[in-house]
Amino acid sequence: MKIIDLRSDTVTHPTSSMYQAMQQAELGDDVFGDDPTTIKLENLAAEITAKENGLLVPSGTMGNLIANLTHCSKGNEVLLGDRSHIFLYEVGGISALGGLFPHVLPTLQDGTMDLNHVEESIRTENIHFPRTGLICLENTHNYCGGLPVSTDYTEQLCELAHRVGLKVHLDGARIFNASIALNVSVRELCKSVDSVMFCLSKGLSAPIGSVLCGSTQFIEAARKNRKMLGGGMRQTGLIAAAGIVALNEMRSRLIEDHQHAKMIADSLAEFNLVKINRESVQTNIIYFNLNAELIEPDKVIEAFYQRNIRFLYLGKSKYRMVTHQDISKEDVLKVVAAVKEILSGLTEQ
Ligand SMILES: Cc1ncc(COP(=O)(O)O)c(C=O)c1O
Questions:
Q1: Which atom number of ligand 1 is nearest to the Cα of residue 210?
Q2: Which domains does the chain possess?
């Protein structure tokens, strides 16, 4: 019996053409800089994001950390949203390993930060102040329901930053979802930022890896920081081969994941006991709340588990489902049926 695993798009397994590409990949040693498949992936990533160069990294977390370390000096302040992945879920790495000081601004409901607030928060020269070293943006915004952030906003933020000589790093773990949802190219979404990290191992279904892209000078320094963090790997062509397939074959199908997420969100919204903002379901992430005083989270999770459906309880009555390549239309219909059956049962109790 198939498990319908909606915990994250990171659970996706490689496709058969990825396995085939991995088997046939031409390999070298990437620390020596001569793995041809990795070089091919990095060039492709740079082209897609309108940057000069790319760097394959083991994870999104390491890509974001390397970007922060590379753009900043120890003691610098980093401006970022209080709901950003870097602030919430990356173990405080920028402080622990980079000596960087997070200056958090409220993340607005649409995943952005107020531009006036950003401008006011940039430090002026004063003996008492740390130097502002970087501004980080996230697109799509995970905590804000996978909302895509517009090119307009990205450009305004970059214009503001560049005016005072500051750089902008984009956590674009799911930038391809943003591109599909907004119907704009990844190139457009990334062209004004100074660096971008995107993940191969989420909706694009590759087994491992993210790519950090930026100027040639930035990537050269980032490569050294990757080595320092222990992220210099050898026959990375194996990973890169799957990554190339991910970029060439898996991008356009993301629209299906978005449609599937909408179908599930609509079915949840039929129940008064569910709190869900349907407008915020624009990509592949669905957040919803069920009053924990009325319905025990363990029972909800267990009822779906019994039907081979898995998703996450995040605490404080909040749940998350994420659609992806391994969730078919048939699976979605099963989830919709389970939602109806389980939630009707709970309403009647
Ligand atoms: C927005 C965002 N950035 C970064 C990451 C980190 O990626 P990884 O799990 O590959 O470290 C994630 C992971 O879910 C994410 O959602």
A1: 10
A2: 12-249 (3.40.640.10), 253-348 (3.90.1150.10)
